[in-house]
Amino acid sequence: MIDDEKRIIEVEVIEGGLKDLGFDYLLIRAEIIEKDPQTTIVRSTVDYEIDDKLAHKVSLVKMEYFQTAIEAIAQYLNTERRANA
């Protein structure tokens, strides 16, 4: 889900990768916050459900995996905003 107006990106992992490690539910959310014309803050969260026996695998979820995509989207949204200003 991408909400251009609120500048929120949500991605639910539905198969493969981390789901194969035992996560029942995994949602990555990024909120793009424009501080000023040259500064953008990205607030990222991960929501998940996993069996208690597999809780040690939670440390495998790292935002760095998603950082490049989130930064590219933030840059695109800022470029678009400046073009429409």
From TrEMBL:
Pfam families: Bet_v_1 (PF00407)
Domain Bet v I/Major latex protein: 2-79
A GO BP entry: defense response
Transmembrane parts of this sequence: none
Protein name: Bet v I/Major latex protein domain-containing protein
Species lineage: Eukaryota, Viridiplantae, Streptophyta, Embryophyta, Tracheophyta
